[in-house]
Amino acid sequence: MVSKPFQAISAHWANPYIGQPWSKHGQGPDAWNCWSFFRHVQQVHFGVATPMVPYADDLLVLARLFRDHQERGRWQPVTAYREGDGVMMRTARYPIHVGVWLEVDGGRVLHCAAGAGVVCQSRRDLAANGWRKGLMKAFLQGALKLALAMSLALIATVAVIAGGYKFFEDRQKDQDRMETAPFEAVSRRTVDLKKPLDLEFFIETKLVNGYMYTSVRAAGHPQYLEHPANKEYGTFLLNFSDKDGFKIYEKTIPIKQFTIIWGGNSATGLSYQYKEHFPLSDYKRFDLAAIEWTVDPKVTPQKPQATTPKPVTDTPDPCTPGLSKAERLSRLAKFGEVRQTASDTYTAGARQVAYYGSQFLYCH
Questions:
Q1: Exposed/middle/buried for residue 142 (C-beta within 10 Å: 0-12, 13-18, 19+)
Q2: Which residue among 121, 196, 241, 275 is buried most deeply as judged by most CB within 10 Å?
Q3: How confident is the model at residue 136 (pLDDT cuts 50, 70, 90)?
Q4: What is the dotted CATH code of the domain comprising 8-175?
Q5: In the chain, what are the domain boundaries?
Q6: Ramachandran angles phi, psi of 34, nearest 5°
Q7: In this predicted structure, what is the pLDDT of residue 260?
Q8: 75: how many CB neighbours lie within 10 A of its CB?
């Protein structure tokens, strides 16, 4: 926000206001919007009481009331500005901002603006900030003319001023809402893949505030979906095409991102939802929905390999630690005839026990 310094303001009553912050719903004294600040200045410095009108996010209806009300015919523009005149400002066709004319430094406008707070600017400064030359004018002959608007017409006027910053945005949003409203309703499509995949897909979409919300549900959960290759690498490809069959949109959804729907103890389907930015112009062209796939419906889940249990034997093990020599040889005899193959070395079947005198050496 451009605001060049000037000498006359230092001794002016407006000087303490300079720099105070702007807030969308500010009513002072810590923060203001343009109308609440204008209203405060008129009351305190010019003795003119004006009503307080709460800020509304959607002021299109009030703007039309202000435009069409007969009271507007009583308001007179002026060519010779005087201290305290209200100044309506605009950047295009409609006024969207208000300030107070001050007879200082050749004439300046005191106003509270978004992003800058309270400033006092010359017409050149205002033009540098987007208020184009020729689009600023006093809208009442003296501040006392504001008292004439204490009726419903003034309320409508104030509403337009208070919503100045967002007037064009609100108007555009209103037009956008009218255009997009039919597409906020849920659109439903069905894709029957019972024959190739034993699945039926139900696809729901809607477009809200520039986002496309999509729900993809599959009825059925055939066994091939549990195959490791399908679970890890399989995908479904959702696409929409126009009435001529030209593809407009495609979304790849890995199987592992789907949520399994359960019915009792068995899986009965799949579900996946998401949202993403999407242009209305393309959404309008949606006609046909289709599902492509990379899964292999011919595979079946792998069965775990059976393991052969080790034979269980009740034969005492001669290699058990802590046995006496006599007990160890007694157990060795369970495996066949005990033969002494070397000094203090004994075998039976595939077992062998060795001693050195009375000291046990090994058993295998």
A1: middle
A2: 121
A3: very low
A4: 3.90.1720.10
A5: 8-175, 185-293, 325-363
A6: -65, -40
A7: 93
A8: 17
